[in-house]
């Protein structure tokens, strides 16, 4: 029987002779053969197998060219020969491979995506919770971007596939969105790996595009003053921005505030667990400037939503309003969430507020407040948090006054 150095290029080009069927053995891997027919090319190996006390040579199919790679065929041949040489009966490799393909096909991207969403949980303070509605919506949206892969086995999706998908958004100038999508997709594939659906997370090694610098911004004192000065009009969005700066809470939490959550006399905003990102009820002391903003807004009605849009719902025109604000401030790119990060940084660096008080102030459960402490400290440090937010409000107003005096 003829021998040949098997290569990918040769495998594609080789044709059967006049008889319509030829066989070759690989010069690289002893025992690995190839049957070339009119309709297909099939890898095989012919080990001596011990059956009923006798060694007999058997032909074992390793799969067809196109379904089985050359590298896979070589590894299978070595494994089969080693198994047979040890006196054990080797598996029918082609049959096993078909069974694996069937199993992998059953775990398609679309099926696993559908299974994942109802089971998706987020970890907060060492415990797992159902995600907030907006988090689930973001996850669902990110995974639907890959809907074209619904019929693909999860095992067939590679890092290269995901890198190309990610790079497409980066090339379109959507770096921040691309990185958000990537973070969510990584969680999905990580979940699939934890459940044994795949053996590795193909999204884990995807290189993020762009620098996403706006997501790491801490506004300087001068920039905080610029934001404050640009939001002094009798406008709901201006009050929202100032409240974000004074309280350090999240955009959707302030934008969706309801008057039933606010006690103007006590100076407390009671954010319910259902609206908090981490599903924990949060009491926010309101410094005098924050209270003044809410009292001004109350003149427009003190029932229902504090900042309703024209349809009686929470604000949705964040992008338009932010662009208008940018036109007034002329700052380097920044996002509303940076006000939260900026408050945290300045509380620590400028006002020397202890870390556990800062974390309690922004309802962040990690580090100092994780575990059991996080469970029992929800309402603690209220006095210290009020003092911290009062000090922060005074600090901001002092910065504004100093700038005006220049």
Keywords:
406 residues; alpha+beta; Double Stranded RNA Binding Domain; DNA polymerase, domain 1; hpI Integrase, Chain A; five-stranded mixed β-sheet; three-stranded antiparallel β-sheet; 47% helix; 12% strand; elongated
What is the element layout, followed by pairings?
Layout: E1 2-4, H1 8-13, E2 21-26, E3 32-37, E4 41-45, E5 48-51, E6 54-57, E7 60-64, H2 70-85, H3 93-106, H4 109-119, E8 122-124, E9 127-129, H5 133-144, H6 159-171, H7 175-194, H8 221-229, H9 236-247, H10 251-255, E10 262-263, E11 268-271, E12 282-285, H11 288-298, H12 318-329, H13 337-349, H14 355-361, H15 371-376, H16 382-404
Describe it.
By secondary structure, this protein is an alpha+beta fold. The protein folds into 3 domains: 2-103, Integrase, DNA-binding domain (Double Stranded RNA Binding Domain, 2-Layer Sandwich); 107-211, DNA polymerase, domain 1 (Orthogonal Bundle); 216-404, hpI Integrase, Chain A, CATH 1.10.443. It contains 16 helices and 12 strands. Strands 1-2-3-4-7 form a 5-stranded mixed β-sheet. It has a 3-stranded antiparallel β-sheet with strand order 10-11-12. It starts with a strand and ends with a helix.
């Amino acid at each position: 029987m003829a021998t040949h150095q098997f290569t990918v290029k040769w495998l594609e080009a080789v044709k059967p002779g006049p008889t319509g069927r030829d066989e070759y053995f690989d010069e690289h891997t002893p025992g690995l053969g190839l049957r070339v027919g009119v309709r297909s090319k099939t890898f095989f190996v012919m080990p001596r197998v011990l059956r009923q006390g006798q060694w007999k040579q058997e032909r074992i199919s390793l799969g067809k060219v196109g379904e089985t790679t050359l590298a896979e065929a070589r590894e299978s041949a070595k494994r089969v020969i080693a198994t047979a040489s040890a006196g054990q009966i080797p598996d029918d490799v082609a049959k096993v491979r078909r069974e694996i393909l069937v199993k992998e096909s059953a775990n398609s991207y679309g099926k696993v995506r559908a299974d994942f969403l109802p089971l998706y949980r987020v970890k907060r303070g060492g415990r797992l919770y159902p995600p907030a509605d907006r988090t689930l919506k973001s996850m669902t949206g990110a995974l639907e971007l890959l809907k074209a892969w619904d019929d693909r086995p999860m095992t067939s999706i590679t890092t290269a596939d995901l890198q190309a998908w990610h790079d497409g958004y980066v090339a379109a100038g959507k770096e921040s969105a691309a990185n958000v999508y990537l973070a969510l997709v990584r969680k999905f594939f990580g979940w699939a790996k934890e459940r044994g659906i795949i053996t590795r997370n193909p999204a884990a090694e995807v290189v993020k595009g762009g620098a996403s610098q706006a997501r790491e911004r801490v506004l300087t004192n001068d920039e905080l003053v610029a934001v404050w000065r640009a939001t002094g009009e009798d406008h709901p969005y201006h009050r929202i921005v100032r409240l974000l700066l004074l309280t350090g809470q999240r955009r959707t939490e302030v934008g969706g505030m309801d008057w039933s959550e606010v006690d103007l006399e006590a100076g407390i905003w009671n954010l319910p667990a259902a609206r908090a990102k981490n599903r924990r009820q949060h009491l926010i002391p309101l410094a005098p400037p924050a209270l003044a903003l809410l009292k001004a807004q109350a003149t427009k009605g003190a029932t229902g939503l504090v900042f309703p849009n024209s349809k009686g719902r929470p604000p949705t025109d964040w992008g338009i309003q932010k662009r208008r604000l940018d036109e007034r401030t002329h700052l380097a790119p920044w996002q509303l969430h940076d006000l939260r990060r900026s408050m945290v940084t300045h509380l620590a660096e400028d006002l020397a507020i202890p870390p556990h008080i800062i974390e309690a102030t922004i309802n962040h459960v990690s580090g100092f407040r994780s575990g059991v402490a996080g469970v029992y400290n929800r309402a603690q440090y209220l006095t210290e948090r009020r003092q911290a937010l009062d000090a922060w409000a005074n600090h901001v107003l002092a910065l504004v006054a100093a700038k005006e005096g220049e």
